[in-house]
Design goal:
Layout (H helix, E strand, L loop, with lengths): L10 H21 L1 H12 L3 H17 L1 H11 L1 H19 L5 H30 L4 H43 L2 H5 L9 H19 L21 H21 L1 H29 L3 H17 L1 H12 L11 H20 L6 H18 L6 H14 L6 H9 L4 H30 L3 H21 L2 H11 L8 H8 L1
Helix pairs in contact: 1-6, 1-7, 2-3, 2-7, 2-13, 3-6, 3-18, 4-5, 4-6, 5-6, 5-7, 6-7, 7-14, 12-15, 12-18, 12-19, 13-18, 14-16, 15-16, 15-19, 17-18, 18-19
Length: 496
């Protein structure tokens, strides 16, 4: 365990800086994929629904696989996982430069880069939480803004690189820059050894102790030149005798197949009990009505609010509001607004008189109104304003952990947050293809954005209704049903 002197300062700020840069390098291109989307449309001449799968998968796969990514970090540590994710992100981006069709892009950019980003996200958040206790909220806020800052920088950078080197050259250069994730991993010095190393160390120490405690026979330590004199064993001879005994033990173990089979069956049953307990715990979490409402709201918000990130540049070009991407793209405006929204909404929810769930519902409702206004906006300035508004309220992602803790408690935060990320990732994966199919069907984005706005407003309405205090009143009254009331009025209320 880490001592209190090692937390909330010192090397922890180096961890924050490294994690911030890691998220910037990993999420810069995926978060600004809206700049690449029109180029892919012109290059491969596929439908907008099919091409949208690339951007939706790169954002959704990492969220859906978050339980697996967290397990990898827990077993192997943040540093090895970040190094491996650097290879995945850089390799996926470079492979995308040689993509012959959209289907290859779906694999190289959508799945490979998406899984790499999920690993980076889990590793950076885990190592930051290990190094901070009292200032954990501030540290996590700084780290998570790396995605928004990366989107702001990469949107402009990718636009300029495509002008200078073309789409393929842009992806190759961005992929080469992503290799710096390995340098960021070098700063992630672990406070606690991960599970994999602890298991290996325990097994090694146990085997070594058992072997050294057993005295090897002197016959095995005779000098091999034929001499029968017995001399004190050297270290080399001792190790040789230990290796010989290991072979004998392994031979005897192979003979006891039945015993090994029983041990394996016990391990399988133990794992099954652990998995059953985990599934039952998830079932109990989903019995909470507020948690179910929050899951539905996260899904509908992701389904409706993420597509503008991917389509907003193409909306401006298809409506003739701008011929090419501007110097500061709409994606960059939305990214910096999201960064501001994360910080401001995070500070606002700390106020005692602010209800986190209702604040989240308000941001959903305001974001839905912005989506309704996009189809009727006929100027590029109007799109810039709406993009900033929608980006600001999309910063409500910073409220998810706070709200989840209030609903299920700190003990079940990890499981509940994994469930929420699954619903959010599923919505992000479906949103852009659905909007693209609407355009392919109607040759207009109007109906698509009306659908998106409806989903977001509906999610806000469900969250408001299912978390009203009157729903929890029944549970409180059931808990008080065993109390004997002396007043007739109190009896009527308890029965009602």
């Amino acid at each position: 365990m880490a001592s209190s002197k090692e937390l909330d300062g010192g090397w922890g700020w180096a961890i924050v800086a490294a994690s911030f840069m890691a998220q910037l390098l990993a999420y810069g291109s995926p978060q600004s994929v809206g700049v690449l989307y029109p180029e892919w449309l012109h290059t491969f001449h596929e439908g907008k629904g099919m091409t949208a799968w690339v951007g939706s998968l790169v954002a959704g796969v990492g969220l859906i696989a978050s339980p697996v990514c967290s397990a990898c970090v827990e077993n192997f540590g943040a540093r090895p996982v970040t190094i491996f994710s650097g290879v995945m992100v850089a390799g996926g981006l470079m492979l995308s430069a040689f993509a012959p069709n959209v289907q290859f892009l779906i694999f190289s950019y959508g799945i490979v880069v998406g899984l790499g980003c999920g690993l980076v996200y889990a590793a950076t958040l885990t190592i930051t939480c290990q190094y901070f206790d009292k200032r954990r909220g501030l540290a996590l806020g700084i780290v998570t803004t790396g995605t928004s800052v990366g989107a702001f920088i990469y949107a402009t950078a990718q636009n300029e690189l495509m002008v200078l080197f073309g789409l393929d050259g842009c992806l190759l250069i961005i992929g080469a820059i992503a290799l710096n994730l390995m340098a960021c991993a070098g700063f992630m010095r672990p406070l606690n050894m991960p599970g994999y190393y602890l298991k290996q160390k325990a097994a090694l120490e146990r085997n070594t102790d058992e072997q050294l405690l057993e005295k090897p026979p002197l016959e095995d330590l005779k000098i091999m030149n034929g001499s029968s004199t017995t001399t004190p064993p050297t270290v080399k001879e001792l190790l040789i005798s230990i290796d010989t005994k290991d072979l004998a033990v392994q031979t005897e173990t192979k003979k006891g197949c039945c015993l090994s089979g029983l041990v394996i069956m016990k391990m399988i049953k133990k794992k099954q009990r652990a998995y059953s307990k985990y599934i039952y715990s998830m079932y109990e979490i989903l019995q909470d009505q507020a948690m179910v409402a929050f899951c539905i709201a996260i899904f509908l918000f992701s389904l409706g609010a993420f597509p503008p990130v991917l389509f907003i540049e193409d909306v401006a070009q298809s409506q003739g509001l701008i011929e090419e991407v501007s110097v500061i793209p709409l994606v960059s405006i939305g990214a910096i607004a999201t960064c501001v929204g994360k910080l401001m909404l995070g500070m606002l929810v700390d106020l005692k008189w602010v209800n986190g769930i209702y604040l989240y519902g308000f941001t959903m409702f305001a974001g839905g109104l912005a989506l309704f206004l996009i189809p009727i906006t006929k100027s590029y300035l109007g799109l810039q304003i709406l993009t900033a508004v929608l980006g600001f309220f999309s910063g409500n992602w910073s409220l998810t952990s706070y709200i989840t803790t209030n609903i299920v408690g700190l003990d079940r935060l990890t499981q509940a947050h994994g469930i929420l990320m699954f619903f959010g990732g599923f919505g992000i994966m479906l949103g852009p293809p659905v909007v693209g199919w609407f355009f392919d069907w109607t040759q207009s984005y109007d109906l698509a954005f009306y659908f998106s706005g409806t989903c977001v407003v509906l999610g806000a309405f469900i969250l408001f209704v299912l978390t009203l205090p009157c729903w929890n009143r029944k549970n409180v009254e059931k808990a008080k049903s065993n109390i004997q009331y002396t007043s007739t009025c109190d009896k009527v209320i308890s029965v009602a």
